[in-house]
């Protein structure tokens, strides 16, 4: 059995490619919404496990389902999950492949500051003037370590989050007002990003290098056209033993593991 650790749109496409190749595959996602999308896509033909798993739960899952190979197709910034999967592969003798969505070429973007961690994000925002609007397209998990320092510096953060109650409650608990929260499902087009930047009078954009599939290119182009200063958080650097950005290579790898 091939286990695809999913949760993104391109991961769902990879599951489809493996299933169409006639290989036994099971997928897992953390969110109920992600599980719903997979179940709708495959009408029950591909088993789906929903819920977060720590390392011990992963080990039990591998043994229960007879997993011989795992494809880590999690979000580029789901570092903790990838680290657990790497440990799992080493301890259980399970073959491991990282599917990494292609990166965005940032060579020609102006006003772009590339950073490695959230401390460097806050350091770069030291140049922002009082009252300036900082558009946070980072996901909700980073907000507790970013928003309080911005409010302390008297900057105006705008958080673009998924439209779920937990994310909305988090923003309100951190002190954001209703006009500082955009709760919408992405990814967003370049035109939509421009409209949001204009509406919020953004001067800064903070985002992650989540790849073109994750909407990073559209955000960067829109910000560059409107003259925003952009802070781009680069991907975690993990010691993946085997990695691909190609669906066909991932399917071929899975086929070889089953021979």
CATH superfamily label of the largest domain:
Nitrogenase molybdenum iron protein domain
Structural class comes to: alpha/beta
The CATH level-2 architecture of the largest domain is identified as: 3-Layer(aba) Sandwich
Q: How far is the N terminus from the C terminus?
A: 11 Å
Strand % is 15-25%
The first-level CATH class name of the largest domain: Alpha Beta
Helix content: 40-55%
Q: Quaternary state, please?
A: single chain
Protein name: Precorrin-6x reductase cbij
Organism: Heliobacterium modesticaldum (strain ATCC 51547 / Ice1)
Pathway: Cofactor biosynthesis; adenosylcobalamin biosynthesis
GO molecular function, one term: precorrin-6A reductase activity
Question: Which features characterize this protein?
Answer:
41% helix, six-stranded parallel β-sheet, Rossmann fold, 10 helices, alpha/beta, 259 residues
